[in-house]
Structures are given as structure tokens and as C-alpha cells.
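Quick sanity check, Transposase IS891/IS1136/IS1341 family:
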Amino acid sequence: MTAPGVPESGHARYTYRLRVSSTAEKALLAEWNRCRWVWNQCVATSRAAHKAGEECGPARLDKMLTGWRAEHEWLREGASVPQQQIIRDFAKSRAKALKDIKAGLPMRQRAGMPKFKKKDRSTPTLNYTRRGFRLKAGRLHLANDIVLTVVWSRDLPAEPSSVRVYRDSLNHWYASFVVPVQAEPLPETGRCIGIDWGVKEIATTTSDAHDLAHPEYGKKAAAWLARYQRMMARRKPKRGQAASKGYQEARRQAAKVHKKIARQRQEAARKWAKRIVRDFDRIAVEDFRPRFLAKSTMARKAADAAIAAAKAELINMARKHGRDLRLVRPAHATMDCGQCGARTKHALPLSERIYTCTACGAVSPRDKNSARVMLIRAGLDPAGVDRVRPDYPPDSQAA
């Protein structure tokens, strides 16, 4: 069974920096303004349909896009492909939010409904399918005669099926190609590992040599980030006024710090994930969704840990190298014993870091015990369990 959020097809993204001329950038921003208008129209239409008790699916929005293009000449001047793709993105976002609502998830855990994209706060992002772009002489040609120079840091392994052109917080443009990839199997080791996510340590495993410590990249850069944010606060323009050069420079420096932190987190997670899949054939991972931590007293440290990024890198690396990765539900993981399967009568407070089983007397660090529980629930280490709770059969989801 495929884990939630893990695509079955063998595709990967290859991202490259773009060299964009002033003419090309003007054309890209014009395309984005049209797509942003289409998105906002979809949001308004969806809300009106919801109040009226009507359906608002992609087919209805596609028909409305045809009418909008016939009505507005400035909209017809743009390519139809990115406008159609923005409707697809809207439909996926809305469907995900409705699915979470029907599942009864609490507000803090479910995806929000699509909102309006504001001009000064939305990031330009354009998606093109195969009929909306082509590669010729090392350059990217988009619909509507937009030509971009790609910095080819590596070769594409296959013909791309789609491309996403976007601008980051530093005003750098990138092209992200989706290409089919083949699995790269690694030699079998015959070993398995259980992984439990945390805040003090990002990942605690059943192998002491493979734990992922919390590097605290955000905490180390906090002083520089606070300095630039104070500069922005002092130079913040009044409503309706243009931002000064000092404000723009401070904003750019703050964005550079955020970008550096994100890259450090991604690199550390990627290196750790590569070690895991190289040394273990079967991996049991806690299917942990850390969104609720954003409203707890551990919000700052949890955000700096970037657990979701580490989990995503591990899933992608396991898929790339053909490893057996299983996502395991985390309910009561800190209450069950990793040796006998017995469960404590009460939930353990966070201050209690040592787990002591009242049934078999096993004593182990709390996170290490949870990592072993992940192995048991995934069915990867059944021989080491004397007694497993009958209501907890192996229920993992293979990624």
C-alpha cells in the first residue's frame, strides 16, 4: 500500500537556476498576474458556490476560464497552459481541504481552504505541461515566446514532462523539471531500523550510530536575522508609500539568512537519509505530522528542527534506492513497551525521559523505546517481542 503523500510513479524534480533578461522577466510577471487573477476568480467562484450549496469542480472552472478569456482581451494575450494549470492547482488544494474536513481532523491539523493571492505577497509560480514549453539549444522556450537561459549544472536524465518556473525570496528565477527516473538499487544489508521523531534530537533510531542530532541552524543565525529584522522595522514604509532602498536591502539580507538556513537543513537531512538507506534494507518510520507543535511551547525549536523536511528526504531517498520504507501510526508510541508490548496506564509527561515497563521491567531511554515500537508495529522485528497488544497488529504503510 502506498503511503499518503508518496507518489507511485518514478518521477523526480531537477531544478536549475535561470538567467532572465529584463524583457523575459517582464513577460513572466505579466503571465503571473494573469494566473493570479484566474486563481482569485476561482476562490471567489468557489465561495459563492459553497454558499449556494453547489458543486465547483475543475470541469466547471475550465468552462468559466473559456468564458473569461473570451470576455477579457488582456487575458487572451497570455498563454492558456499556465492558466489551466493554476485551475488544476486550485482544485487539488480545495480537494485536500475538503478531504481533511470530511475526515474530521481538527483545525490545527487540516489543510486550509484556498485563499486569495495578494499582489505583494504571492510568489510568482508558473506551471507548464509538455505542450507549453520546449528545450532548444540549451534554452527554455515557454509559450507566448518567452525564452530563458538555463544554467545546466547537470544533465537531465530523460525528457521532461512538465516544468515549473518560479521566483524565490531573493528574486532569483528557477526552472524545476519533472522527469521519469529509474530506481538505483543499493546492495542488500539484511538489516532493519526503527525511527522516532523528536525535538531534542530530530530522529532517534534503534541504531545509536544513526541518530540525527538537532543542529540548531536557526538558533545560530538568530542574531543576524534579528539584526536585519530590526532594520526592516525601522525602515518600514508607511501605507501607500514605496519601500526605500535601505528597507529593500535589509529585506534581501534577511531573505538570504532564511535561504541559508533552509539549505543547511536540507543538506543535513539529505546526508542522514543517504546513510540510513545505504546501511538498512527495511525502515520503519513514525508517520509523524508535526504541525500541532507550531501552537505549543516547543514551536521555535520544532520549527528549527524541520522534522517534515527530514521525513520527506528520507522517503524520497528510500524510493530512489528501492528500500522498503513503512510509515507507522504514532498513537501511544511512548506508552507501549518495545520489549513486551505492554502499555502504561497513563501518558508519560515530556519531562520523564526514561521508560520503565511495569510488566517486564525493561528500562530504556524514552525515544529509543519508541523507535523500537516503530519496528514492532511495522512487523519488521516480531521475533524480539514476547507479547504484542492484540489491538496493534502490524499496520504500516509501505512507501
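Posting the structure with no commentary besides this: Residues 34 and 351 are 53 Å apart (CA to CA).
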